[in-house]
Amino acid sequence: MTKIGMRVPPGYAISVDGFGRYMELTGLGARLQEYFDGLGPELATSVQKQMDASRAAKELFAQTPLPDEVGGLIESNYATLCERTGIPDVPVAVRSSGAISMPGQMETYLYVRGAHDVKHRVREVWESTFNTRAIAFRLEKGLAVAKAPIGVAVLKMVNAKSAGVVLTVDPTTADTSRVVVEGNWGLGESVVSGEITPDHFLVDKADLAVVERSVSVKTRQVIPTAQGTVKADVPADLQDRACIDDGEIAEIARVALSVEAHFGAPRTWSGSSTRTRRCPRASSGCRPGRRSSSLRTSTPRPTTSSTR
Known about the structure:
By secondary structure, this protein is an alpha+beta fold. The protein has eight helices and twelve strands. Helix content is 32%, strand content 23%.
């Protein structure tokens, strides 16, 4: 994504091979396969059995710590990221990254600090492949239930002023000439969870002009703390103000369209507008003096472990 000019926070990825190595070295993969093989066909039709299977699978994960080989690689890459950013115990997001888009099915952890906690959260993201909704999805799609290889992205947290989602097609009308941008103050969790009604902007792809806008009264936001994230009240003077301005909207849409062109199909993104005016990457096309917008695709390709 960085190669095509996306402003992606620095980080590294743990490929699906890392997940497979964890399963192989610990024997967890074989134990999960044996467990699911013993379940009858009613698993596909019984929500209760899917919930029971999820609990049993997670218990197996909880009993299976990371082997030194896998944990050591996660830790060494995190140390490199800390050195690269110049921040000891740099706060990161730990989130799933797979070849198949399964939005909302895996866990995401924000403002994770320290190698020990990063390793713990990586294992919990892998464990979340056996959430009830993830099991139901694989059954519905005819996919193997006991095998759910997933990559994990570990990305430096950005100092978000506001955040939300971007869609390069209007989902309500299927209009491919528009970009939809929705957001709230703080981190994007309040938007993707549906907890609040976000600001909504409809952007014309031809000239990046805002053709429709709806600024909501936003009373709650998600903000970082030393222990992670918390829900908090939005200051009264910001509640009825747009969380991003027209210049930021146009820049977000421009970057989203460049990625849509690269992949050749409409895309959905999560992103943020930062509080700083520092250009995050010399190659990103931003100019000094402009507030920057950082975008992440919700359907990234699996990659090998790397901090580049």
